[in-house]
Amino acid sequence: MNTRVTDTPSHPLTALGWNSSVAAAFDSVSHASEHLLVPGRVSAARRGGSVVNLPEEVPADHSPAVLKAARRDPTLAPCTGDWVAVRRSGDAWLVEAVLERSGTLVRQGIAKDSHDQVLAAGVDHVLICEAADQGPNMGRLERFLSLVRTGGATPVVAVTKAELAGDRLPEVVELVRSVSPGVDLHVVSAHTGEGLPELAERLRPGSTWVLLGTSGAGKSSLVNAIAGGDLMDTGEVRGDKRGRHTTTHRQLLLLPGGAIVLDIPGVRRIDVPGDTEGVDRTFSDVTDLAERCRFRDCAHESEPGCAVRAAVDEGELDLRRLERWNRLRREAERNRSRGDVRLRAERIRHWKNADRPGLRVLRTRRPAWRCRR
C-alpha cells in the first residue's frame, strides 16, 4: 500500500519547490500504481536515465513504460526540473512516471517530422538576459517572451553587462521596455554589482528560475554574482561578441538564498510554438489596438477603420513592431498546422499497427461461404 505524501513545511523536498500541486499530482500517480513510489525532482537528464533528487542525488534509469512513451513522443521523456515518481528495482532506482507538468519551456521542432524539445519543466519564472553591449535584439527578445508566456511561466527581463553600454545604456533600456510592456525589468552588472540586490529579492526560496539568453549574455556571471561564488562556469566572449557555450547540458542548481536555477545551454534560435496566445500577450499593445478596429477580421493593411494602421500613421505604434507581430503570428500558425499534420500521421500509423494482428488473422481464415471440395 502506498503512503500519501503530505504537503508540510518540513517535507524533505520543500527546498526543491515541493508544494500542494506537486503533492496532489504525486498522490494521483502513487495511488494508481502497484509499486511503492517516492517523489523526486530531476536535476539532470540523459538518454535512458536521469539524475533525481530524493532529496539526495541518485542515478535512475527510465522504466519500460517511460521509455515507450518517450519513443512515441520525445517530449514525454523526463527533463530537467520535472517532478517524477520513482521506485526501487533491486539495487537501482527507476523513474516510473513523470508527474503533470507546469511552467515549461518548449523549443519548437524545425523539421516537418521533428518533435518539439522540452528545455525545462516546473518553471515559475524565466529571467531573459539581454546584454547591453550586444543589442538589444528586439525580434529575439519578443520571441523569448512569446516562448515563456506560451509555457505558462512568468517572464522577467535583465539588461546585463550594464557597465559596458556607457552612454548608450538609457537608450538600450528604453528599447527593451518598448517591446516588453508589463514585464519587470532589471538593469544589472555582475562586474559592478549594479541592480543585483533588487534582482536577488525576486529569487525567493523554493521558486524555480531559468535564465534564458544567447551565449555571451552574461547568465553564468550573473548567477555567480548573486550566489557570491563560482556556482556556474563562465567563458570568454569572442571577437564577434558571441559567447562560447559554457553550459553544454541542463542541470538544477540551488542558490544560497534558497531559489532554484535550472541551468540550460544558451540558445541562438527559437521558433515560436504553435500557439498564438503567447505571441499576442507579448504584443499586447498591438492586440489592444486591434480590438478597436471596425472589422473583426481586419488584416491591418488597408481596411477602413483600422485602429492599428491609424496608430502607425500617428506615430503611436512602430511599423516594425507591427510587422514582427504579423511575422510571429504566421510562424505560430504554421507550426501549429505542422504539428497537427504530424499528430494525424502518428495516429494513422498507430491505427495501422493496431490493426495488423487482426488483418493477419482474417487473411489466414477461410471464408465461411466457401464450400469444401
Automatic annotation (TrEMBL):
<keyword id="KW-0479">Metal-binding</keyword>
<protein>
    <recommendedName>
        <fullName>Small ribosomal subunit biogenesis GTPase RsgA</fullName>
        <ecNumber>3.6.1.-</ecNumber>
    </recommendedName>
</protein>
<keyword id="KW-0547">Nucleotide-binding</keyword>
<keyword id="KW-0862">Zinc</keyword>
<feature type="domain" description="CP-type G">
    <location>
        <begin position="112"/>
        <end position="270"/>
    </location>
</feature>
<keyword id="KW-0694">RNA-binding</keyword>
<keyword id="KW-0699">rRNA-binding</keyword>
<feature type="domain" description="EngC GTPase">
    <location>
        <begin position="121"/>
        <end position="268"/>
    </location>
</feature>
<keyword id="KW-0342">GTP-binding</keyword>
<feature type="binding site">
    <location>
        <position position="298"/>
    </location>
    <ligand>
        <name>Zn(2+)</name>
    </ligand>
</feature>
<feature type="binding site">
    <location>
        <begin position="213"/>
        <end position="221"/>
    </location>
    <ligand>
        <name>GTP</name>
    </ligand>
</feature>
<keyword id="KW-0690">Ribosome biogenesis</keyword>
<dbReference type="InterPro" id="IPR027417">
    <property type="entry name" value="P-loop_NTPase"/>
</dbReference>
<keyword id="KW-0963">Cytoplasm</keyword>
<comment type="subunit">
    <text>Monomer. Associates with 30S ribosomal subunit, binds 16S rRNA.</text>
</comment>
<dbReference type="InterPro" id="IPR004881">
    <property type="entry name" value="Ribosome_biogen_GTPase_RsgA"/>
</dbReference>
<feature type="binding site">
    <location>
        <position position="306"/>
    </location>
    <ligand>
        <name>Zn(2+)</name>
    </ligand>
</feature>
<comment type="similarity">
    <text>Belongs to the TRAFAC class YlqF/YawG GTPase family. RsgA subfamily.</text>
</comment>
<dbReference type="Pfam" id="PF03193">
    <property type="entry name" value="RsgA_GTPase"/>
</dbReference>
<dbReference type="InterPro" id="IPR030378">
    <property type="entry name" value="G_CP_dom"/>
</dbReference>
<comment type="function">
    <text>One of several proteins that assist in the late maturation steps of the functional core of the 30S ribosomal subunit. Helps release RbfA from mature subunits. May play a role in the assembly of ribosomal proteins into the subunit. Circularly permuted GTPase that catalyzes slow GTP hydrolysis, GTPase activity is stimulated by the 30S ribosomal subunit.</text>
</comment>
<feature type="binding site">
    <location>
        <position position="300"/>
    </location>
    <ligand>
        <name>Zn(2+)</name>
    </ligand>
</feature>
<dbReference type="InterPro" id="IPR010914">
    <property type="entry name" value="RsgA_GTPase_dom"/>
</dbReference>
<feature type="binding site">
    <location>
        <position position="293"/>
    </location>
    <ligand>
        <name>Zn(2+)</name>
    </ligand>
</feature>
<keyword id="KW-0378">Hydrolase</keyword>
